[in-house]
Amino acid sequence: xxxxxxxxxxxxxxxxxxxxxxxxxxxxxxxxxxxxxxxxxxxxxxxxxxxxxxxxxxxxxxxxxxxxxxxxxxxxxxxxxxxxxxxxxxxxxxxxxxxxxxxxxxxxxxxxxxxxxxxxxxxxxxxxxxxxxxxxxxxxxxxxxxxxxxxxxxxxxxxxxxxxxxxxxxxxxxxxxxxxxxxxxxxxxxxxxxxxxxxxxxxxxxxxxxxxxxxxxxxxxxxxxxxxxxxxxxxxxxxxxxxxxxxxxxxxxxxxxxxxxxxxxxxxxxxxxxxxxxxxxxxxxxxxxxxxxxxxxxxxxxxxxxxxxxxxxxxxxxxxxxxxxxxxxxxxxxxxxxxxxxxx
Length: 344
Fold this sequence. Notes:
Elements: H1 2-35, H2 40-45, H3 51-60, H4 67-79, H5 93-125, H6 133-147, H7 150-164, H8 187-199, H9 202-238, H10 241-248, H11 253-290, H12 296-305, H13 309-337
């Protein structure tokens, strides 16, 4: 009962701190956008527009107010759940995020699955012979994939598999010759549902073909994190007392590894998953831009270039909220699976 109370108290404390963290992040983004060089009016009208038109648009968008007034209006809208309207097309920021977020979640979830499968396989492969060739290759793979610049790796993959071999599309999310599936915005799920309903597999196949290259590139770049984490934790588990006790009882090495060492080694890897979600944001930005993937990171890059203050602020706040929720969920899951973990 005391452990449940401790976990509940930890959850409430993290949730209570979440609004403070989001406020700090939103305030920092608000300030950085205003002090950075560039003017959104120049992005909208150009530098040669008449001064009267520039002044009228500035007043219409509320950019003629003082910085303190703009900040107060921004916080008031944020408390109401209103992220404002995009400066470029006056579309609600929440609508832009709603349209773009499924693409990023689909890419991120697929990349995370590839990273986990490949990384855990590489990390586990060298356990039989520590310091052997497989173990050395796994370490080189882990360091190399983590160190590769995402934009460079994406361009190399495009040149080889899209331009050179012509196996897969070079970019985009869906074939331009087909109508995108309607539904949740997750094209794979919507295409699969359409296929199972008798609508054919062309929609699902088109979405899958466009997803393969960006998801594989991002997943392989992140897989080194899982490989190194599993290798280090599994080696530590194999040298622990409870593993030696299992061996002394005459259990086979395969059973010792799979039943005793591996479950304990996977718990820290679960924690790494929460950290990897934050890494997905930086990596996804470069991957989405390189592959012209219309996700939220791609929209963020466009909004920064256009000096679209409300859109940049809204995207950053939503992404920060998602990261906070994922990290809290992972921490609680680790605490539930491992009684040794205490958040008291």
